Amino acid sequence: MNEPEEDAVGQPQERWSFHSDIVGLKEIAERLGVTYFRVRRWHERRESTKCPAPIVRLKTGPLWDMSDWHGWFALWKLTRGSESWNRTGDNKAAED
Q: 32 in a domain, yes or no?
């Protein structure tokens, strides 16, 4: 069994890893390609949007595991989304 390593002052130091991708509203918006305001609106209307619940709320705001958002967003695009979900608003492909 591995013993904990010691730090510079000789105190045991536990080794652990945290593999979740913890994000806030801005990071969610960037990764999904939507505006910050849309993500905030989804969160504010969580009762009706059924978007993922935060895993923790800090004084700086709620935090989520990004993996929770990927599945929800894919379903949202299929059921409620339209071209308006795209932050760039580029509808040239639809016009061609």
A: yes
